[in-house]
Amino acid sequence: MDLLDRVATRDEVALKLLYDQTASRLYGLALRILGNKEWAEDVLQESFLGIWRSAGTYRDSLSPPMAWMGMLVRSRALDFLRRRKAERLHLNTPIEDVDALVQDKDTQGPMQLVEASEQAAALHQCLQRLEPPQRQVVSLAYLRDLSHTELASSLKLPLGTVKTWVRRSLEQLRKCMARHV
Amino acid sequence: MNLTRNPELLDRLAASYSLGTLHGGARRRFEQMAREYPQVRAAALLWQGRWSAFSEVQAPVQPDPVVWTRIANLLQAEGSSARLARQREADTSKSPAGALAWWRGLALAGGLATVATISVGLWSHQELRENTQQKVSVLQNQLQMAQADLQAAPQIQYVAVLADGKADASMLVTFDPQHQQLVLQRVSGFKEAENKSLQLWALPHQGAPRSLGVMGDGKLEQLTAQETDVKAIPALAISLEPKGGVPSSTGPTGPVLFKGALIRRDL
Predict the structure, then answer these.
(1) Residue A5 and residue B207: Cβ atoms within 8 Å?
(2) Span A103-124, mean pLDDT?
(3) Cβ-based burial of A109 (10 A; exposed 0-12, middle 13-18, buried ≥19)
(4) Which residues from chain A sit within 8 angstroms of residue B52, using beta carbons?
(5) Residue B200 pLDDT more than 90?
């Protein structure tokens, strides 16, 4: 995909094409982190303006395009959460709501991973081997950058359970990923 | 404890650190080790790359079409305000306001003062200058001789110092177009694992990274390259890849350990 290169040369048509190809994946990610449609839309919008302005620096990162855009969306979503926290607008969005918004999360077929990087395919495979609740714990630990305590309170689980799950899933994922990439 | 002697533990800590689940004292100790040992930094980078795929594996959800409309509107607004700014600039330069003229006058006066100072300086050093001219001609002779010697010796016209994220120089790369030789020299203690290889990439202004070759495990490595491979390439990078490297068309799959600008030396 050299669309990002075209975007770097201020090609608006390329930006639209890029949006059509990637917006649903990036919106799914933002939704997963933020758990709120409106916020996720704001972050998606900000992210695409960011891509428009900084597509030129993408080559320096040496990442595959999807990974680069994913990182950009995640860091903007986390900034968004931090701002809200600072403004004392506590985010009490229960995580169950996110799962309702994100349907078929476990039936994501290989077709959707066609454009994804090799690492994404490996991670996807390895995640499938975990029990769904454990998968959720590690995903949220990474995507929302949450501590054990924060995970426990947002998932309404005892701290000890969260710690055990994180440790076990991390160990399973680590061994599985090492075989792939 | 030296983490570098316990690869299993290093891998476990690096995975946890990069996932963000290593806390408190353990996190600080890991960061301390990372500052000290390039292997520890490499392990953390490797896992950061692996975990970054979390962003890619989330289920897609179609956003409301209004989001694109908003983006398109903002782009348009940005574009027209940039045009306006350019126009305003052009207008001002045609009819300089009084204040602007005054500032320009001041700048000119400053410039003249500088010229005056330099002339005085030169005048008082007239003798020194004559002396210097002799020295310059000696140096020019020496340079000509050196250049003659260089015809025979390897002609290193391109140099790059590749450094890691901490700006520690880790690899010196030189290229001699006449002998089509790319020489890589390890200058830090970094050592890849048995089942890994370091791969050198050219990073063009436009387009994907191109592989320049895979390094062996020696301190000094030679690769063959054409000048067209490195000409107009602004930067080089080294990534950690599976043993034997990956095809150029795949692009780097592992973390980028070292990176640096490629400089053309003009003699």
Answers:
(1) yes
(2) 60
(3) exposed
(4) 63, 67, 70-71, 119
(5) yes
A67 CB near a chain B CB, below 8 Å? yes
Residues in a beta bridge with B163: B169, B259
**Which residues in chain A touch residue B234, judged by CB atoms under 8 angstroms apart?**
none
- The pLDDT of residue B151: 53
**CATH 1.10.1740.10 boundaries in chain A:** 1-92
CB atoms within 10 A of CB A59: 21
Highest-pLDDT range among A67-71, A165-169, B72-76: A165-169
Quick one: which of B50, B177, A102, B211 has its CA closest to A93? A102
DSSP conformational letter for B169: E
Query: Domain A104-181 classified CATH 1.20.1050.10?
Result: no
A87 to chain B nearest CA, in Å? 24
Assigned token pair, B221: 């490595």
Would you say residue B255 has pLDDT above 90? Answer: no
Contact criterion met (CB < 8 Å) for B63 and A44: yes
* Nearest alpha-carbon partner for A29 in B189, B61, B51: B61
Question: Side chain identity at B21, as an amino acid letter?
Answer: T
Q: Hey, which residues 97-156 in chain A have their CB within 8 Å of chain B?
A: 101-105, 108, 112-113, 116-120, 122-124, 127, 138-139, 141-143, 145-148
pLDDT above 70 for A9: yes
pLDDT in tens, B8-46: 999 999 999 999 899 889 999 999 988 888 888 888 888
Global pTM reads 0.59
**Does domain A1-92 sit in CATH 1.10.1740.10?**
yes
Contacts of B15 in chain A (CB under 8 A): 170, 173-174
Contact yes or no for A5 and B23 at CB 8 A:
no
CA distance B200 to chain A (A): 13
- Chain B CB contacts of A143 below 8 Å: 54-55, 58
Q: Where are the domains of chain B?
A: 3-50, 158-264
SS3 for B160? Answer: strand
Q: Which two tokens stand for residue B142?
A: 């020496």
If you average pLDDT over residues B150-179, what whole number do you get? 72
> In this structure, which CATH number among 2.60.40, 1.20.140, 2.40.370, 1.10.10 belongs to the domain B158-264?
2.60.40
Report the chain B residue with the minimal C-alpha distance to residue A101.
B61
Contacts of A135 in chain B (CB under 8 A): none
How far apart CA A113 and CA B254 sit, in angstroms, is: 19
ipTM score of complex: 0.81
